Amino acid sequence: xxxxxxxxxxxxxxxxxxxxxxxxxxxxGPNTVEIYLNDEKKLWSKYCGMPNEMMVLTTGRELFxxxxxxxKGLYPDIPYTVTIFLQKxxxxxxxxxxxxxxxxxxxxxxSGWLLV
Length: 116
Prior knowledge:
Blueprint: E1 23-26, E2 32-37, H1 43-47, E3 55-56, E4 63-64, E5 69-72, E6 85-87, E7 92-97, E8 100-107, E9 113-115
Antiparallel strand pairs: 1-2, 2-5, 3-4, 6-9, 7-8
């Protein structure tokens, strides 16, 4: 499992560099897999300074901005599975009330991880 920060593309607590580095994952052979955030519209850069890590839309609880990645170095004829884990930064669920985010009394499961 790879855990990353704003410089590693996933969550924002600081400004994203304009040319964010790629994440290299070594394979058993001489090849490496490169994974980087596809942020053509610069939405992740724009929302990085917001007080929450990402916005949640009420319709279907979709992530915004959407996670789009470019991956290089995979073998084209082999099927792959990509899994993303999100981890909450606090122990309870949050709700938007009276113009601000408030922590509810309903706790998140023990792990705090969400499989996407």
